[in-house]
């Protein structure tokens, strides 16, 4: 059982480490993930929630059990930082108002600035010191949170960053108070040497400066951290708060949480879809870009599925709710991203181990530093300066933030591009992948057969051949028959009625059309019927070499022609495979299809390692065999029959899961059926891990240099001693630097490029459409709705991939292109005018 808790009071990685350690001691706890960034904790096991809450409280922090039941959406990945930011800003501004006169009074005389006369000289030493003390008190009061939290954590034997700040500033403050008494004692006894020594050795300005600079750093850090969850926040904001539901013939606007499965929901133009459902009335174009990353609106009509939070661009429609509340695609997306963001990547474990002992070690180093300077005969001022600088410069925050901030931004950026990581471990592991195994059907190819070639007999037109073929195949339920009937429909070819239809399993069909007997089937079937195939035998063999299935058609004993059908390669697959190769990734094609077809597809895409005729269990064995060779394997499949292989792979990627993101067998879900998203996932993983390594290097390097510098290690050789004020500034800068570096991931962009031409046919094959690219000049497009209409019309043609440029009034089509008149007809049927095709 997995439960999520809200944890309050954590300020640095030492805090999260203490919470983690405390909860792991509770009986029944199997796994703990504490998210410092989100202020949350996930606990797996059978432990009593009350025992867990008690363990967190005993560690010095607050906790409560989250209960999301009934909510429309999960909570945001990063808590609302608005009130905290406002409080921090107020504390900093007020602290700064007192710090300016304090700093002027304590340091002004060193810079030659004028100071009032009653502060000058040894006789006014008490005025000089007492005024600084009084100016420091409001700064301590405004920032008392560091003392309350820090000393409480120290009392609980779980010191954190606030403990270091509290100890450092308190030590400086107590030193200054001691100086006040020394000055007073010297003035009373006329001991001017004592007065002169202590009046310039106060340290009140150090205490004030430390607290003010730390608060400024915390403000900048919190503001930056608030930006990490923007991708998820934008998704949540897209979902409407209400829905118009039709019940008993009456429409009423109700909260979206009250919508039930089976309700009829009306979606008006310009409104967001409130729940997942199926259109039952009306048509429209829907913008799903926020969920899938696809920028072009999608046409929707009766029977089509729509997703919650997608935007209705034009007409009104009514949908029947199929998923509501936390079952919607959007809610599951957010849940997946939040879970990934709150989980820990293996690379974070080193930082967690260091953070657990970091603060106690720093306190010990500070004490040893002070003792060492005193024992070696140096002044108490030197000892205090070094000890306080050690406490203040040490920064466990930089270590703690190095991984979670980058993971949060990376998973959010993935969601923006339609790539959902289920865990931080998957995000990290993917960058090590050097071999990608691709399922063929539905992943590399369209997943449905289409007509690719027409070879009519001399004296027979292509339209006549297709009319007879589609008429004869229409009564058949074979997938190849469906492809031929669909092609005839696209060309608006009327069909003739068929009588005496009979299908011979595994061989072909025959029937009577207008009193004549016609045959359709494979080569053996027509030869058995006494048909002479002549040159069509050679054409069929050549087509088979390219992975196509040839269907032969004859009238009585006369050959009419040949139609080739295949599962066409997606226009984007060749580009994705080429990009994988450019990234140094080996590509393996895995399929249950026959060897000849698989080899042809592999050859057309430049894949040399093709494994064919495998069952689902054999796919798993293939992946395992690659792993035995020492390869890090990612498997890309449709998440159904590829499930065993997806689980076996180091990282499993389920492709084309736009309406079902909860595929248990996959580690990464690709929302669109575009293989380029797998490339995006690997690139994003590499960018995130590279960013984390940069952050960890900076955090370790900063502390490795900063602590010895503050302790005075370089003093004897180089006369370097770090002032606590500069130490405070450096500590604040380190956290801000780490967070700012992680935010650079927001600039990540998924690479898109032109579809690679895939020449697969021999030019000597008469009538075969050539795979190529053409540009269509179109008149009459006025808006994005027009753009979507044209794009849908062209993409409906088999083997065609189209992109429309509204501004240029052009459409670029690529793939197994049909004749120009069919391209023109598709556009004109959509209501627009074609002026040129080239």
Layout of SSEs?
Blueprint: E1 2-8, H1 13-24, E2 29-35, E3 40-45, H2 49-58, E4 62-65, H3 82-107, H4 125-142, H5 145-155, H6 161-189, H7 192-199, H8 204-226, H9 230-238, E5 242-247, E6 250-255, E7 264-267, E8 276-281, E9 284-287, H10 289-292, E10 298-300, E11 305-306, E12 311-312, E13 317-323, H11 329-342, H12 348-375, H13 380-393, H14 396-402, H15 404-416, E14 419-421, H16 424-429, E15 435-439, H17 440-444, E16 450-456, H18 462-473, H19 479-490, E17 499-504, E18 508-513, E19 516-521, H20 523-528, H21 536-545, E20 549-555, E21 558-566, H22 573-582, E22 586-590, H23 595-605, E23 609-611, H24 616-628, E24 633-637, H25 643-648, E25 651-655, E26 668-670, H26 676-711, H27 715-718, H28 724-743, E27 771-779, H29 784-795, E28 800-805, E29 810-816, H30 820-829, E30 833-837
Parallel strand pairs: 15-22, 15-24, 22-23, 24-25, 25-26
Antiparallel strand pairs: 1-3, 1-4, 2-3, 5-6, 5-7, 7-13, 8-11, 8-13, 9-10, 9-12, 14-26, 16-21, 17-18, 18-19, 19-20, 20-21, 27-29, 27-30, 28-29
- Helicity level, as a percent range? 40-55%
**Globular, elongated, flat, extended or rod-shaped: what is the shape?**
elongated
Overall average pLDDT:
81
Q: How many β strands by DSSP?
A: 30
Radius of gyration: 36 Å
Low-confidence stretches: 68-78, 657-662, 754-771
Number of helices: 30
Q: Give a quick account of the main beta sheet: strands, pairing sense, barrel closure.
A: 7 strands, mixed
Structural class: alpha+beta
Content of β-strand: 15-25%
Strand arrangement across the biggest beta sheet: 14-26-25-24-15-22-23
Q: Termini separation (Å)?
A: 62 Å
């Amino acid at each position: 059982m997995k439960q999520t808790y809200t944890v309050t009071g954590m300020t640095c990685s030492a805090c999260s480490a203490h919470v983690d350690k405390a909860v792991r001691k509770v009986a029944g706890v199997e796994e703990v993930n504490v998210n410092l960034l989100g202020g949350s904790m996930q606990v797996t096991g059978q432990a009593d929630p009350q025992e867990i809450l008690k363990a967190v409280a005993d560690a010095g922090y607050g906790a409560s059990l989250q209960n999301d039941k009934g909510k429309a959406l999960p909570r945001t990945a990063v808590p609302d930082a608005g009130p905290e930011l406002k409080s921090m800003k107020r504390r900093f501004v007020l602290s700064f108002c007192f710090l300016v006169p304090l700093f002027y009074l304590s340091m002004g005389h060193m810079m030659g600035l004028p100071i009032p006369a009653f502060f000058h000289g040894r006789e006014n030493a008490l005025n000089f010191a007492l005024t600084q003390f009084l100016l420091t008190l409001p700064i301590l009061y405004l920032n008392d949170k560091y003392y309350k939290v820090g000393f409480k954590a120290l009392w609980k034997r779980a010191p954190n960053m606030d403990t270091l700040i509290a100890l450092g500033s308190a030590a400086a403050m107590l030193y200054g108070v001691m100086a006040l008494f020394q000055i007073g004692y010297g003035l009373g006894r006329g001991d001017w040497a004592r007065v002169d020594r202590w009046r310039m050795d106060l340290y009140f300005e150090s205490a004030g400066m430390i607290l003010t600079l730390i608060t400024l750093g915390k403000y900048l850090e919190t503001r930056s951290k608030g930006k990490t969850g923007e991708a998820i926040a934008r998704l949540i904001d897209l979902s409407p708060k209400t829905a118009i539901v039709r019940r008993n013939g009456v429409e009423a606007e109700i909260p979206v949480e009250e919508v039930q499965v089976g309700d009829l929901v009306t979606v008006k133009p310009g409104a967001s879809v409130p729940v997942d459902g199926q259109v039952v009335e009306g048509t429209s174009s829907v913008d799903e870009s926020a969920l899938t990353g696809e920028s072009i609106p999608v046409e929707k009509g009766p029977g089509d599925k729509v997703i919650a939070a997608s935007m209705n661009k034009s007409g009104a429609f009514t949908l029947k709710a199929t998923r509501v509340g936390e079952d919607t695609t959007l809610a599951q997306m957010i849940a997946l991203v939040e879970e990934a963001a709150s989980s820990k990547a293996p690379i974070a474990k080193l930082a967690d181990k260091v953070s657990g002992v970091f603060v106690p070690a720093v306190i010990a180093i500070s004490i040893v530093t002070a003792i060492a300077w005193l024992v070696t005969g140096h002044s108490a001022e030197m000892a205090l300066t070094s000890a306080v600088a050690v406490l203040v410069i040490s920064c466990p925050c930089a270590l703690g933030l190095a991984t979670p901030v980058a993971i949060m931004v990376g998973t959010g950026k993935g969601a923006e591009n339609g790539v959902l990581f289920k865990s931080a471990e998957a995000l990290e592991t993917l960058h090590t992948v050097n071999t990608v195994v691709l399922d063929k059907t539905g992943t590399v190819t369209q997943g449905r057969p289409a007509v690719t070639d027409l070879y009519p007999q001399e004296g027979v037109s292509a339209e006549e051949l297709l009319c007879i073929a589609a008429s004869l195949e229409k009564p058949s339920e074979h997938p190849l028959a469906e492809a031929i009937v669909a092609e005839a429909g696209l060309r608006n070819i009327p069909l003739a009625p068929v009588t005496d239809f009979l299908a011979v399993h595994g061989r072909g069909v025959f029937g009577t059309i207008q009193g004549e007997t016609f045959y359709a089937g494979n080569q053996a079937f027509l030869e058995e019927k006494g048909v002479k195939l002549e040159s069509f035998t050679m054409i069929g063999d050549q087509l088979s070499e390219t992975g196509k299935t040839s269907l032969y058609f004859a009238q009585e004993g006369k050959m009419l022609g040949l139609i080739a059908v295949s599962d066409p390669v997606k226009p984007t697959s060749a580009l994705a495979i080429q990009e994988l190769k450019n990234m140094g990734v080996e590509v393996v094609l895995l399929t249950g299809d026959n060897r000849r077809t698989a080899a042809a597809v592999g050859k057309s895409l430049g894949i040399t390692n093709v494994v064919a005729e495998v069952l689902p269990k054999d796919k798993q064995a293939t992946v395992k065999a690659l792993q035995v060779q020492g390869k890090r394997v990612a498997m890309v499949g449709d998440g159904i029959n590829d499930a065993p292989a997806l689980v076996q792979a180091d990282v499993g990627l389920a492709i084309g899961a736009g309406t079902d993101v909860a595929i248990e067998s996959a580690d990464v879900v690709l929302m669109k059926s575009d293989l380029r998203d797998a490339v995006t996932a690997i690139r994003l993983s590499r960018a995130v891990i590279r960013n984390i390594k940069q952050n960890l290097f900076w955090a370790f390097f900063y502390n490795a240099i900063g602590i010895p510098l503050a302790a005075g290690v370089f003093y004897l050789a180089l006369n370097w001693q770090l002032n606590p004020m500069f130490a405070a500034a450096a500590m604040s800068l380190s956290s801000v630097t780490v967070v700012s570096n992680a935010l650079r991931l927001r600039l990540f962009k998924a690479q898109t490029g032109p579809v690679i031409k895939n020449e697969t046919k021999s030019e000597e094959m008469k009538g075969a459409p050539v795979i190529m690219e053409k540009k269509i000049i179109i008149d009459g497009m006025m808006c994005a709705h027009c753009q979507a209409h044209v794009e849908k019309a062209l993409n409906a043609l088999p083997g065609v991939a189209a992109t429309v440029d509204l501004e240029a009034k052009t459409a670029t089509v690529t793939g197994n292109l049909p004749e120009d008149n069919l391209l023109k007809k598709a556009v004109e049927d959509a209501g627009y005018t074609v002026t040129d095709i080239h």
